Each structure stands twice: as C-alpha cells, then as structure tokens.
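This part of the workshop introduces the protein records we will be handling. A record pairs a protein's sequence with a compact description of its fold. As an example, a complete record with its sequence and its structure tokens follows.

_____
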Amino acid sequence: MTNTLEFDQLQSLLKNGDLSFFNIYGSDIDISINSTTQYYLDNPSDNIDKDQTLSVYYLDIELLVDELKALDVKEADSQINSITRFFSGDNRYITYFLVKPENSLSLGYDEAGLTVEKINALAKYYTEKLIESKHIIPEESIELQFFTTEEELLIAYLKDIRECDPCILTGFYSDKFDNPYVYYRCCALFGKQRAEEMMSRFGIVTERNGIISIPEFIQCDLRYLYTPRDEGGLNFGKRLFSYSLDSVSDSELGLKKFEYKDSGMNLNDFYLKDPVHFLLYNIVDVALTVRLNEKLKHIDLFNTLRRMNKAPFSRSLVGSSIFYDSFITYKMKEEGKVIRHGIVSEKEKMFKKESLTHIIAPKMKKTGSIPPSDISSSEYSSIAAKFDGAYVKKSVSKIINDGSLIIDLDASSLYPSMMLQHNISFDTFRAKIISPLTYKFIDLLESLMGTNKLPERVFTSIFE
C-alpha cells in the first residue's frame, strides 16, 4: 500500500521536524538532472541516432576603456562601443557600432548623417575583403548598424538576441567576459530590474563564479571547451603555448586576428582614429570563432556526449562528473529504482549503543575513553570528524550471485584522463602477467652491465 503526501502535508511535517529532508529519496538529485533524465525516459526516440542541430549565436564586444583604471567586469564603468554577432540561423554578421564626434568623419558622416549607400558600400568592402582572406564564406553576409548612444546600441543588440532565440550563446571567453559585462553594463545604465528584463524573458539573471546564468540560453564558450583541464577548460583541444583567440586560430585554421598594434595605436585610439578598420577588427574576432567551431565542432561533440549520458547541457559544463550522475540516475529510473546520494538518516534519528561498540577505538591524544551512549547523528558526526585517519576493514572475498549486492561508487572525481593514464575505472579489469623468463633476461642484462637496481622479486624464485 502506498501513502501519498500532498505538498502542504509534506511541508508541515518538515517544519515540525517529523520528517527530515534526508528521509526523502531522490530529493538531493539536482533538479536539472532529474528533469533531463525524465525527459529522455518519456522521449526514447530522442537519442544519438537522431541528428540534433543547435542554433548558435556568436558574439564579441569591444570597450572604450579608461587606461588608468583596472577593468572590473562587475563595475562595468567602460562604454561598450561595438558588438558583433553571428547567428547560425541567418548566416549574418551584424555589428552594432557606437559613433562619436571624434570618429564620425572617418566613417563618412556629414550633415545628413551616414547614408544607406555609404553603409552598404562599407559592408560590401568588409565582405569582399574577408571572403578573400577566408575569414568568412560567400554564403555569409555582413550588416552594419550605427548608434549615437550606448543605450540605443544595447537595446537593439538584446532585442536581436531575443528575436533570434538561439539555443547556444558562444564566443571566445564570452562566458566570463562578454556576456557578464553586457549584463553589468545594462545594470549600470538601466538599473538591475530593467537589465534582467532586457536580458531574459523571465526577468531573471543569476551569477555564480563570475558567470551569469540566463534561463532560456545555454552559454557554451569555445575557449572553455578547447583549453586543457589544468588551464580551467574541458580539454577538447590540443596543448598550446597560449590559448588566446589569435594563437588558437593560427594553430587550427592558419588565420589570425586583424592586427592594429603595428600602427602604434592602442585599442582606444584605433576606435577613435580609424573606425573603419576597428569595425573590421571586431568582425574578424567573431568570424574566427565561427570558423573554429565549423572545423572543430566542439559544441556538437559536447552535445553528443551529454545526450549519450542523458545529461542537462548547462549543468554538465561544470565537469564530467555530471555525466556520471545523470547516466546512473537515468538507468536507475529506467529500472524503476530510487537513487540516493550521500548519508541519509532514514527513519532512525539516533545511533544506538550497540552500533557504537563495533567502531574501533581511535588513538586519542588525551587519555581516557568516551563511554557509549545514545547520541544524535549530528553529535556523532562531530565526534567522528575529530578522529585521525580512517579504519578500513579487511574485505571478505566471495562470489555473490543472488542479486543482493549493492555497490556504492565514488566516481565523481575520476576523470577520463586519470582512467586512461592508470587504466582504472569501475568497469576496467585488465592486467598483463609478465613471464618470469622476462625477469631472468633483465637480470642477465644487468649482470653484464655490472649493475643491479631492480627490487627483489618474490615470485621469480618460484620458477627457478
């Protein structure tokens, strides 16, 4: 017989202390893992045999910075003077550019402003130049939009994201710079509430470890995918001396960023004195990320891995342990079983004297002993935490084939690189038995060389 609790009843029991959070099986499973695994159970046709095309929105921003101050993303006190985006859904590069009095004449502004003919001529110049240099392909187009206020620029840019409604937001370090900076700059200009409404249909933007989260978008940065784990990435690329966009593009594509430093100008001067080529510089940065993903297909690769493991996209970007958690959760649900993580108290809220007597007494720094008594689980944990080291009982070797075996695996931190390096995982049982003749041969070589550095081999004598 199954008893069902309504939410209000459950809430009351939890508040009164009649139930603990740890009494509820599956309650500690991440909500995104829970919902994603349930989706794949409900939709078995959505598997890796079925192609899945993701709409990707590439972006790069440029700033007019105060060179006397260190750049702080959260303070966001520097103007955004240019944003270029490329959307896989329309094959268009659109640049949103902030015009200032200092650079307006160089762009061709006059009393009538910047005419459509001049804008189209400039876009045509960029298109031809970048097709020739192989930064873009003929199927792609370039569009330019000019603004006299930063507020108008940001409103137009964020409106475009909403209209495109992409699945993925990407760039090169966009997760920790471009996207957060746009958000905090909007907070500075429009206020936090308005900024969140501009960034998200739900009006919700959260931040964790320098990365903002927007409910309807997944941020999957190309640099993060490419760099090795010891550099803070997911290790999809190869090891390089530098992981700048210029270095990675040069190594993978034979293409480089548009160079401006040879002219002796910094980026601020470049923007104010040569806006025509500054625009080109911004477009090239986005074009390189498009070409990198086109060749490497790292976003598709990651999506395939997470689909194989029935894992949520955003959550699994934190590391491979989420793949493991998701797949185990999926398989347990598929078999109609309930999974739990960590230590739970179930119905017992106390440890009995009898259970404590089985614990080996630790080596105490102080003399004396603690007599067994009924203590709460929290008190027990605080005492156990003071013990030096740990005690592992000698295992009993036997074959269990009655279906009663329960295995608790701590594989969350077992990265694929460690599995490969040491040939270890929960499903790997491989070894090579070396013939004693091999040891005899090594001994012979060492005796001829006059050295003997090998440790004593216990089993060699058995075969002699």
Residues 275-296 form the longest helix (22 residues). The CA atoms of residues 96 and 257 lie 19 Å apart. The first strand starts at residue 56 and ends at 64. The radius of gyration is 31 Å.
